[in-house]
Amino acid sequence: MTAYTVAALAVSAFFVAQPSGIANAAPCSDVDVSFARGTGEFPGLGITGTPFVDRLKSELSDRSVSTYAVNYAADFTQASAGPGSRDLVAHMTSVAASCPSTTFVIAGYSQGATVVTNAVGVRTTSSITGAVIPADIADRVDAVVVFGNPIGLRGSKLETASSTYGSRALSFCNFGDPVCQIGGFNSFAHLQYGTNGSTTQGAQFAASQVRG
């Protein structure tokens, strides 16, 4: 059993007692926030996305903010990250066409971080079944935030891997998290982004990017 599977099973056991976020879309908001949950979590924003989105809404209380929970399986094979990125890109493309002034914040946790990684054009094992954000709306993406991103296992992160979005990206990987840190040894570290201040920092970063 891989470290990733152990961590994912821990997530699955942990989130059962947690409230799940529900997508709440408002037409032509100032900012549209999409979040992709982690492996095994119930549909919604999840244990990391819920505090992240709540804090970001608070930080942007003077603006209208719509939210979208990426609709994908989040299954244990990790292959669902490809279709997840297709759903994310389809949502963004639809909003961009209908709401020309809306800007975007995209974020994800664990396998959801892979969904985001695919969408910004950084290759992963599921990229072949995924989709990339169209170039004509790339400038409307204000911030990209990921928690426990598996590309850390190859010594990479979005800040340096993406020439397009790197300057607008922020990655969080807890010490010992085996999903994103080479040699990670503590599966519980993968569960703590929503409670250790990471989601607050991520929301503050995203809000500062939105404000320019």
UniProtKB/TrEMBL annotation:
Keywords: Disulfide bond, Hydrolase, Serine esterase, Signal. Belongs to the cutinase family. This is Cutinase family protein. The keyword Disulfide bond applies. It comes from the Bacteria. InterPro entries: AB_hydrolase_fold, Cutinase/axe. Residues 1-25 form the signal peptide. The keyword Glycoprotein does not apply.
